[in-house]
Amino acid sequence: MLKLLVVVLALAVLAPRANGQAVPTARAVAVREGAGVVVRYHLPAPVRRVAFSQRDTIRELWTVTTPGLTLVDGVVSGEAPFEGFELLIRPDAVEVDRVYMGLTLAGDGRVLFGPALMLEGLGTTLSVDLAAGEAVLPAGGQIDGYAYIGLATDIMADARGAVVAGSNMPAELTDLLRHSFFDSMAFYEGRLGVGLPFRPTLIGSVDSPGPAAFRGDVTDTGVISVRFHGDAWRDEREAVGPFVWHETFHLWNGHSVKNRDSEAAPWLHEGGADYAAIVGAISSGAMGEAGGRLRIMRRVNGCRRLLGSDDLDPTRLQSGNGPYDCGVLIQWLVDLEARKAGTGDVFTVWRTLLAGDRSGPDGYGVKAFRALIGPDSAVSVLLDGPGTTRWATVRSRLADLGVSLENRPGDRDLRGAALRHVAGRNCSSAYGFYDNPGALQLDGADCGVLSGEPVIDTVEGYDPQTTSRAMFDAVMARCAEGMPVRYATRDGRVLEAICDRPLVEPEVWAIADAPALALGDENLSTVIK
Q1: What are residue 158's DSSP bridge partners?
Q2: d(CA 343, CA 336)
Q3: What strands lie across the sheet with 432-436, from one edge to the other?
Q4: How many CA atoms lie within 13 A of 479 on its CB side?
Q5: Element spanning 360, H or E
Q6: Which fold has domain 411-497?
Q7: pTM (2 decimals)?
Q8: Which part of the chain has CATH 2.30.42?
């Protein structure tokens, strides 16, 4: 392939050593080839081994093509000294929760995660060798984030930012992503009163390997990657807009500021983004009040299932759905309290929180957030109160804030309750399921006959996705008799799972009445450019 242009993506700043000397620098040059990306490294001096500094990246599909060298556990090594090496990076085979993808597809383009290329003990520069008609986004700093390498014709850009959509993305989805991206940026700038230190980019792809229907993440360079598993988005179209709104809020609360509690308490920034997406989408006309209430109550009920009546274990809010479910409940309580007190709304709290981060060296975190909302907030009931009285007290505090609740389990609740109940009797470690349309897949490694991530067609003869109530009633009857529950799999097997405890109908809160979620214009702040 004729290479016509070399664009420098990112130059790692040479940090001084303690003795004042500069850190030696390795050069990495990436080029789009075949279904992947080839990266050629030039080292500052001969070595027998060099390690990648980013440990979380999955490198199972990375291959060192230089003769005599191997890549094992993130370390490139050889018997003889070497001054460079070549990597063939193929797209990741699976999405993993809270792990950045090393390489993904976006139509004919590639999305490369720059930090995965950093070498331990060395500075690293990254450049891209472009062919005619190719482009790279964003224009600089990509060793620190995602870099798009692909056709320039797949980029839609203006002064506000850029949207990348591969040629294989349906126009309907492209339009939805573009409008959600630009609308959410305008809304958040107005509410938070501050612009962004970078020109943001949204990269959309329908080439996700799954198993989740869609997943997204954001890097410090202002690049959002949203990835859809084929046409799965069509079955959850109403969730696509809020999904983009969620990721866009992270440009403000996660990647233009320092969040010192991002690992210890992800419920703050994840709950903040999810709730901001709901209120923002409703306020902008992209979602109705009913849809917003439904999304909030799914989160609230998820938090209730997660925490139960146990005293709070902070680790339960660090992974899985915990940061999102309980995080949204926390943000809703804060919003209701601020509006009732006449002190603003949830964005007023975030505006103050993020302004404090920009004026101080330590960033924001849970301590600053809780200082803003005060010790009398209902949030204290959730985080500090005894588990035995937690939910009765939360319900009472919600009533004081104008929210009346009723019990109203739906098909999703019944489906989840039955599957989780049986899994709980068979699994000795973490378990769950992927509720992908037409392909419900169990997830759990230590679950007896339910292990191996089988795709389930029926449970007790009923499709769990289309006849949830009938399936629930059948499982309830089997469990009441202590009889095994029968799962028919997509590959023709029948799995008989233990169920030796009664299944009870879940208590699922629904909103009977509550204050509106939509915000008017009275609290809009001035955007600081």
Answers
A1: 161
A2: 11
A3: 432-436, 439-443, 455-459, 485-489, 494-497
A4: 24
A5: none
A6: Pdz3 Domain (2.30.42)
A7: 0.83
A8: 411-497
